[in-house]
Every structure is written in structure tokens, then in C-alpha cells.
Write a structure and sequence with these properties.
Layout (H helix, E strand, L loop, with lengths): L1 H24 L10 E9 L3 E6 L9 E17 L9 E5 L9 E6 L5 E7 L11
Parallel strand pairs: 3-6
Antiparallel strand pairs: 1-2, 1-5, 2-3, 3-4, 5-6
Length: 131
């Protein structure tokens, strides 16, 4: 009887701990590590980018965030879909392909100061509302 209670306690602990551990890991895809920044490019240099981040509170001014760009920073550029309803296709790019005014999603390092991946959104895509 004592062993069955210990077994049940161990199983209960696994049911509580395992989902928490999996949620924190995200399979090594960087989901829990670092942050993501959504906004519009306001400045592009060889070693940094500046993104105007929309304020979370309605009516507040946009926040400007400058991120360091390294040789390891990946750039993905979405092309507009050929037909309506299709997902945009992303191709590899370089920091030289970035232009002021483009809408981007940037995956940052844990400290939020370095851009790990810059994803340029297709024009007209991801507006955030229903049509």
C-alpha cells in the first residue's frame, strides 16, 4: 500500500512538473528565450537597426528601440502572395536588403539588445484585423 501511494505521488508530480518544463524549453526554438519586437524600421545601419514599436496603451506614442546587428543575424524577407488567401513566402536576405519604412518582426537576444533574426513582413500582410 505504501508503494502505491508513493507511485501515485510521483505520477502526480510528473503531471505538474513536466508541462512547466516543456513550456519553458519550447524545443530549442527560442520561444521562451529573448523577446520579439514588432514595428516599423526607422533607421538601418551596417551594425544596428531602429524599430518604432507601437505602444501597448491606446493613444501613447510609439517607442523607438535600437538593436545591434551582427554577422550571425538572419534576415528573412516575405514576398507578397501570388493569390489572395495564400501565405506569403519568405526568402533569405541580408541587412543590406532592409529599408526604412518596412514592417518587421525581430527576434532579440535574452537581454533585448541584439537582433538574432529579422523577419520583413510582406506589404499589406499581418495587419492584425479582420477584413
Amino acid at each position: 500500500m505504501r508503494w502505491t501511494w508513493m507511485l501515485w505521488i510521483a505520477v502526480a508530480a510528473m503531471l505538474v512538473v513536466a508541462p512547466v518544463a516543456l513550456a519553458a524549453d519550447h524545443g530549442g526554438k527560442g520561444g521562451a528565450k529573448g523577446t520579439r519586437v514588432f514595428g516599423e524600421l526607422t533607421a538601418v545601419a551596417a551594425d544596428s537597426i531602429t524599430v518604432a514599436v507601437k505602444a501597448k496603451e491606446k493613444g501613447a506614442a510609439a517607442e523607438s528601440k535600437t538593436l545591434t546587428v551582427t554577422a550571425d543575424t538572419k534576415v528573412k524577407i516575405e514576398k507578397a502572395p501570388a493569390a489572395e488567401g495564400e501565405k506569403p513566402q519568405a526568402k533569405d536576405g541580408t541587412v543590406g536588403d532592409l529599408k526604412v519604412g518596412q514592417r518587421v518582426m525581430v527576434k532579440c537576444s535574452e537581454d533585448g539588445k541584439t537582433a538574432l533574426e529579422i523577419h520583413v513582413l510582406a506589404p499589406g500582410a499581418h495587419k492584425g484585423g479582420k477584413k
